[in-house]
């Protein structure tokens, strides 16, 4: 592992920051060696899961794997959404149907818990805004690990339910995500437990790369010109781009990476998009996030600086959208593509629309939108904006009396 600030090298262990400068640690690889082990042919013959890219993940071939079936979600050619947004070539990478817990977090948790087993840990946990809690609880259950999950106490009911059902010990903390995260750091240090996004974070974050590998493979081993990605802690957007670079470094794609990366946030918690728009190197932490998009509501994102830098360096941009625009984005995605994404998906669609309308993303180039979570977990966000179903007796007469409904279809 290597410090992203000073470059100091560390042997693999459950540590996430450099002892000299507190810089985050990142896993490094020997790409020349990987080049000799994989090819497009070899990868295509492997089972369709994220683990086909194991050489690019920090888990050795003889180590146990938690979450064997994670990944390989559809890359959907989204022609109807493209029409609605006024663009020509659009895809949705649909992690709303990831296995086992319907979000992109299944990827990062699979790697982190595999590493926890390798380190001999028997208790794991996380600080979470919801999706991570679901995935840690489910995958830890399948691996027979003891689990502690700490969440802000005001989290969506569905996300708490979808954690507790797996037998995890769920603790609601009266505070923000950032405060919960700090407590987890103390617990991890004191008890030696594996907190996937704290002391296992360098390994965890690598799992995000598989979303990038899959996009490239599904496009026929080439890259899109533009990727729009939601940002919470800011890791995913950077790891998708890292994946693209690794594919080039190992000869799996033919041309150097020129993809522009765009970050999406909610206006009620927009530290990274704000830093990009204000041309500030370091984000200003948001003390009290206030948005329906709770899964992205991290006020002081661990990878904020790196995400803002990446967006600038690739020639992309970042934007944020209001809660109303998020709901509109969720409905637009559902009504054009039949994909019910969660609030983060609505954020991504709404930000894409804003960037296209502002001329930041050209209308005639290839765009991939990353939809990272499932709308069934955030039903409250859209419930009030949908028309309640009409109730009738089961007779043709009553059906035909529903004013306007039939006429609307027949014209
Ligand atoms: C965690 C999460 C993200 C973003 O992840 P980061 O790597 O922290 O930026 C995006 N979408 C959803 C639904 C998430 O749960």
List key phrases describing it.
single chain, 411 residues, alpha/beta, Rossmann fold, 17 helices, globular, binds pyridoxal-5'-phosphate
What distance lies between the first and last C-alpha atoms, to the nearest angstrom?
63 Å
Cofactors and ligands present? pyridoxal-5'-phosphate
Q: Which secondary-structure class do the elements indicate?
A: alpha/beta
Strand content: 5-15%
Order of the strands making up the biggest sheet: 3-4-12-9-10-11
Largest sheet: 6 strands, mixed
What is the overall number of helices? Answer: 17
CATH class of one domain: Alpha Beta
Helical residue percent band: 40-55%
Regions with little confidence, pLDDT below 50 for 5+ residues: none
Number of strands: 12
Element string (H = helix, E = strand): EEHHEHEHEHEHEHEHHEHEHHEHHEHHH
C-alpha-based Rg, rounded: 21 Å
The residue-averaged pLDDT reads 96
Reported CATH architecture of one domain? 3-Layer(aba) Sandwich
The 3D shape can be described as globular
* CATH topology label of one domain: Rossmann fold
Pfam families: PALP
Keywords: Lyase, Pyridoxal phosphate
Cofactor: pyridoxal 5'-phosphate
Organism: Limnoglobus roseus
């Amino acid at each position: 592992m290597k410090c992203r600030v000073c470059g100091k090298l560390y042997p693999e262990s459950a540590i996430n920051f450099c002892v000299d400068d507190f810089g985050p640690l990142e896993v490094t690889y020997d790409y020349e060696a990987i080049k000799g082990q994989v090819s497009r042919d070899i990868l295509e013959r492997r089972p369709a899961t994220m683990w086909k890219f194991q050489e690019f993940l920090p888990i050795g071939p003889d180590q146990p794997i938690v979450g064997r079936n994670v990944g390989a979600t559809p890359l959907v050619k989204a022609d109807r959404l493209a029409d609605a947004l006024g663009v020509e070539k659009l895809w949705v990478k649909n992690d709303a149907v990831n296995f086992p817990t319907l979000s992109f977090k299944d990827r990062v948790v699979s790697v982190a818990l595999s590493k926890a087993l390798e380190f001999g840990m028997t208790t794991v946990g996380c600080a979470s805004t919801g999706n991570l809690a679901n995935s840690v609880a489910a995958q830890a259950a399948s691996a027979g690990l003891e689990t502690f999950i700490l969440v802000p106490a005001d989290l969506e009911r569905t996300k708490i339910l979808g954690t507790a059902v797996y037998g995890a010990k769920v603790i609601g903390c009266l505070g923000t995500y950032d405060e919960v995260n700090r407590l987890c750091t103390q617990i991890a240090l004191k008890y030696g437990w594996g907190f996937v996004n704290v002391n296992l974070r360098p390994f965890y974050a690598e799992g995000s790369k598989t979303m990038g590998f899959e996009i490239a493979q599904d496009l026929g081993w080439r890259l899109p010109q533009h990727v729009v990605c939601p940002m919470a802690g800011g890791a995913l957007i950077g790891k998708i781009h890292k994946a693209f670079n690794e594919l080039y470094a190992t000869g799996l794609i033919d041309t150097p990476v020129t993809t522009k990366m765009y970050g999406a946030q909610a206006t009620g918690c927009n530290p990274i998009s704000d830093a990009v728009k204000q041309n500030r190197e370091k984000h200003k932490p948001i003390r009290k996030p206030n948005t329906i998009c709770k899964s992205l509501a991290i006020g002081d994102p661990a990878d904020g600086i790196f995400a803002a830098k990446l967006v600038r360096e690739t020639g992309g941009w970042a934007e944020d959208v209001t809660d109303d625009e998020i709901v509109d984005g969720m409905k637009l995605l559902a009504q054009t593509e039949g994909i019910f994404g969660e609030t983060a998906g609505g954020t991504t669609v709404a930000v894409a629309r804003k960037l296209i309308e502002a001329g930041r993303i050209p209308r005639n180039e290839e765009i991939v939108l990353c939809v990272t979570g499932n709308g069934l977990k955030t039903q409250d966000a859209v419930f009030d904006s949908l028309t309640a179903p009409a109730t009738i007796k089961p007779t043709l007469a009553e059906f035909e009396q529903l004013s306007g409904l039939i006429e609307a279809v027949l014209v």
